[in-house]
Amino acid sequence: MKVLLSVAAVVTLFAKHAYAGYTNVSEVPLYGLSPPVYPTPEGEGNSSPAWAAAYTKARAFLAQLTFEEKLNLTRGYTGTCVGNLGSVPRLNFSGLCFEDAPAGIRGPGFVSAFPAGTHLASTWDKEYMYAYGKTLGEEYYGKGVNVALGPVGGPLGRLARAGRNWEGPGPDPYITGVQMEEVVKGMQDAGVIACSKHFLFNEQEYRRLPNELGESISSNVDDLTLHELYAWPFMNALRAGTGAVMCSYQRANNSYACQNSKLLNGILKTEFGFEGFVVSDWQAQQSGVSTANAGLDIVMPDGGFWGKNLSEAVTNGSVSIDRLNDMVTRTMASFYYLNQNDSYPSAQIYSPTVQHPILDVRGDHDKVIREIGAAGHVLVKNVNKTLPLKAPRFVSIFGYDAEVKAVPWTNPLRYGGGYEVNFGWNTFNGTLIVGGGSGSNSPPYVISPFKAIQDRVIADRGILRWDFFSENPVPEANSEVCLVFINAYASESFDRLTLSDEFSDNLVLDVAGQCANTVVVLHSAGARVVDAWIEHENVTAVIFGGLPGQESGHALVDVLYGDVNPSGKLIHTIAKKDEDYGNLLNSTVDQSAFPQQNFTEGVYIDYRAFDRDGIEPRFEFGYGLSYTEFAYSNLSVVQSGASTAEYPSANVSIVQGGHPELWDVLFNVTASITNVGDVAGAEIAQLYLGIPGAPIRQLRGFDKVSVQPNATAQVSFLLTRRDLSAWDVVAQKWQLQAAEYNVTIGASSRDLRLNTTLQI
Ligand SMILES: *[C@@H]1O[C@H](CO)[C@@H](O)[C@H](O)[C@H]1NC(C)=O
Ligand SMILES: *[C@@H]1O[C@H](CO)[C@@H](O)[C@H](O)[C@H]1NC(C)=O
Ligand SMILES: *[C@@H]1O[C@H](CO)[C@@H](O)[C@H](O)[C@H]1NC(C)=O
Ligand SMILES: *[C@@H]1O[C@H](CO)[C@@H](O)[C@H](O)[C@H]1NC(C)=O
Ligand SMILES: *[C@@H]1O[C@H](CO)[C@@H](O)[C@H](O)[C@H]1NC(C)=O
Ligand SMILES: *[C@@H]1O[C@H](CO)[C@@H](O)[C@H](O)[C@H]1NC(C)=O
Ligand SMILES: *[C@@H]1O[C@H](CO)[C@@H](O)[C@H](O)[C@H]1NC(C)=O
Ligand SMILES: *[C@@H]1O[C@H](CO)[C@@H](O)[C@H](O)[C@H]1NC(C)=O
Ligand SMILES: *[C@@H]1O[C@H](CO)[C@@H](O)[C@H](O)[C@H]1NC(C)=O
Ligand SMILES: *[C@@H]1O[C@H](CO)[C@@H](O)[C@H](O)[C@H]1NC(C)=O
Ligand SMILES: *[C@@H]1O[C@H](CO)[C@@H](O)[C@H](O)[C@H]1NC(C)=O
Ligand SMILES: CC(=O)N[C@H]1CO[C@H](CO)[C@@H](O)[C@@H]1O
C-alpha cells in the first residue's frame, strides 16, 4: 500500500514525541482539524493467503457485475434484517443480512441473551472472551445473519456517565483490545463477519447526531491519544481479522466520522492495513461524494446520499470507478474470507407480528452464559466472611431489581429498557440484565435473582420474605440475611444524569438500618457510586453484579453460595463521588451550531487520571475480592531474542492490524501466585507498565489462574513491541525508548505486589 504523507506529520513537527512545549494540547497548531488523506487505498488482500484467496474470488465476482449491480452492493434496502445489503439476483447473490448486536441477536425469538461487553470484561478471562464470541457467532450463523454488529470497542468509556459505556469492555485500551480480538476470533470462527465498532471517538450520546441546533458534537482528539488510547483496541480487532468496521455518528476533529479521510483512508486502511469494508452506522452518512472518497464502502440502512446520486457521481467523475470497484471488492472479499459462499444458511429473521417456524439457535449456550455471568460478578466488600452464604434458613429479599418485572412492559422487545425509556435509572422496571438501545438483546427467559435464590432456599428447607415495591420495607427480626437489589440503567441515545439515585440509596439505608446482615447486589450499566452506604456497619457484603444476561440469578447464586469463588475485577474506577471524575463525568452539553468536545486530558482517563491527580477512589480499577487470598512472589523478566531497535523496520509491508513487528514479543514476565487461604479460587494478576513520559501505570497484561489451597501457579505476561512503545507524533511511528521501564504486578491497579524494572 502507498505511503501517504499526512498533514498530521506537519502538524506535529512542532513537537517531539509528546507535544513538547505545550501544556495544553488544544493549543497545538491545527488542533481539532482533520487532515485530508486521499485517495482511499485499494484493498489488495496482502495480509495473508486467506485474504489473498478471498480477493481473487471477490475480483472474479466483481468482473461479472454491471454498473447498477455494483451500486446495489454499496447500500441497504428495507428487508427483514436490521440491515439488508442490495442483492444481485442475476447471479443468485442474495445480499448480506446485518443484525444487532454485541450481546445477543436483538429482535428474533429462540436466541440467547448474553452478558453485556462490560460484564464479559470483568471476567478478565481470555478463554471466556473467545467462547462468548464463538457461541454468539453460532447463533448469528444459525439465523443466517452474515454480519454481526459487534464487538464494541468504542465508546471506550472516557465519560463516566456516557450512555453506551456498558456495550464494550471499558476505559482501558489494553483489556478492550484483548476482548475485541478474542470476540472477533470467536465470531468469525463460527463463520459470521464481525463488525467492530464504532470507529472512532463515539464517547457521548448527547448531540451524537445533527439536530435542530446544528451539527453533531465534534470529538477533538490529538494524534498521540488517537493511537495510544482510542484506536489501540481496533488494532487488535483488525489483527484478529475483523471483516467489517462501522464508522460512528459524531464528528471527529470536525469532520463526520463516516466522511473522515484521515480516520478511514489514513488510519484504518493505510496504517492498519484494513482489507474489509467500512459500513456506516445507521443514518450516520451526512454526505455523498465525501463519504465515498473518504473510504466508506456501504451505507445503511438505505441508499442514504448514495443510490442514484452515487451513480451520477461516478458517471461525472466526482467518485472514481476504481473507488466503486474497491467498495464492492472489499465487501465481497470479507464475504469470501469467511467462506460465506459455501452453503451459508439463508437469513431467517421474522417480524414478531408474523407467525413463523421456530428456529432455535441457542444450543447449550446457557451453560457458558451462566459461567461468564458468575465470573463477571465482582465482590467488593465482604466483612468477616459474610459470603459465601452458609445455607441460611431465613432469607429476606428487597428491591425492584430482584424480580423480573413489577409492571407490564410497554415494549416486549426491549427488555430492561430501550430508546423510549429516557431516564437514568429504572425503579420499577425489574431486574437489569443488559442496557438499552441497539446493544440490548432478546432474552428467551430471565432467571431473576429472586427465582434462583428461592430455588436454593427451598432446597435448604428455609423460608423467604420479600418486598420488591416499598421504599421502606421492614425486614423481619428473624432474617439471617437481608439481600437488597438495586440497579443503574443506561441506554444508547442518552447519557446518564447521575451515577447513583436517591431512591435506591435510601432503600439500602432503610434495610441496613434494621438488618445487621445486609448484602447489596447492584446491577449497573457503567460505574455506580456507592458511598451513601458502603461504609454502613450493617452492609456486610456488596457485589457488583454487572449486566449478566439471561442466567443472571443462577450466576449470582453460584457466587453467593460459594459454588463459584468470585474472581471478577472492576474494569473501571468507582469514585467516592461523581465529581471525582472531574471533566470526565458529563458529556458536553454544548448548544452551539458546531459543538466541540476537546479531549485535552489525552490518555489520562479513568485510573490514569486518578493516579496522576492523587484522587483516592472508593474501588480502584482492577479491584475485586475472592473467598480466598493470594500471595505473589518470584517476579522474573526474560528478554526474548526479538529486536529492540527504536522503530519497527521500515521495509516490512503492513498487514491488517498494522506493522507486523508491533506484535513481536520482547519480554516474558512471570510471577508465582500462591493460594494462602482455605478454598480453591482464581486470581487475576495484572501487569502495569511505567513507560517513560506516559502515565505512571498502564495495564499491559493480565493472566487468570485457578489455584488450589496451598498450591502455587505461574502467571505469565508477554510484552510486545507495541505494549512497550509510545506513539511518536513526528515520525508517525511506534517508538521504543532507550530507558528504564517500571514493571509492577498487582492484584489491582493500586494493590501492587511485585516491582522491577526493565531496560531497553
Ligand atoms: C486549553 O486551551 C483552550 C484554547 O485556548 C482553552 O479554551 C482551554 O480552556 C484550555 N484548557 C486548559 C485546561 O487550560
Ligand atoms: C477546543 O479547542 C479549540 C482549538 O484549540 C479552541 O479554540 C476551543 O476554545 C476549545 N474549546 C473548549 C471548550 O475548550
Ligand atoms: C438490488 O437489490 C434489490 C434488493 O435486494 C433488488 O430488489 C434489486 O433487484 C437489485 N438490483 C439489481 C440491479 O440487481
Ligand atoms: C441460480 O440458481 C438457479 C436455481 O438454483 C440455477 O438454476 C442457476 O444456474 C443459478 N445461476 C447462477 C448464475 O449461478
Ligand atoms: C468480625 O468478627 C469479629 C470476631 O467475631 C468481631 O470482633 C468483629 O466485630 C467483626 N467485625 C465486624 C465489622 O462485624
Ligand atoms: C444495624 O442493625 C441493627 C438491627 O439488627 C440495628 O439495631 C442497628 O441500629 C443497625 N445499625 C445502624 C448503624 O443502622
Ligand atoms: C455535570 O456535572 C456536574 C457536577 O460535576 C453537575 O452539577 C451537572 O449538573 C452535570 N451536568 C449534566 C448535564 O449532567
Ligand atoms: C514465558 O516464561 C515462562 C516461564 O519460563 C514459560 O513457561 C513460558 O512458556 C514463556 N512463554 C513464552 C511465550 O515464551
Ligand atoms: C518508576 O518508578 C519510580 C519510583 O516510583 C519513579 O520515580 C519513576 O518515575 C518511574 N519511572 C517511570 C518510567 O514511570
Ligand atoms: C495448608 O498448609 C498449612 C500449613 O502446612 C496446613 O496447616 C493447611 O491445612 C493446609 N491447607 C490446606 C487446605 O491444605
Ligand atoms: C514498588 O516500588 C515503589 C517505589 O519504589 C514502592 O513504593 C513500592 O512499595 C514497591 N512495591 C512493592 C510491592 O515492592
Ligand atoms: C416500561 C415501564 O414499566 N417503565 C417504567 C420504569 O420505571 C420508571 C421509573 O419508575 C417508570 O416511570 C416507567 O413507567
3D structure, described in words:
- With 760 residues, the chain is α/β, with parallel strands linked by helices.
- The protein folds into 3 domains: 32-108 and 143-337, Glycoside hydrolase, family 3, N-terminal domain (TIM Barrel); 365-584, Glycoside hydrolase family 3 C-terminal domain (Rossmann fold, 3-Layer(aba) Sandwich), CATH 3.40.50.1700; 628-759, Immunoglobulin-like, CATH 2.60.40.10.
- The chain contains 18 helices and 25 strands.
- The protein has a 6-stranded mixed β-sheet with strand order 1-2-3-4-6-9. It has a 6-stranded mixed β-sheet with strand order 10-15-14-13-11-12, sandwiched between helices. Strands 8-7-5-16 form a 4-stranded mixed β-sheet, with no helix packed on it.
- Strand 3, helix 6 and strand 4 (193-199) form a beta-alpha-beta unit.
- Bound molecules: 2-acetamido-2-deoxy-beta-D-glucopyranose (12 copies).
- One 2-acetamido-2-deoxy-beta-D-glucopyranose is lined by residues 24, 26-27, 600.
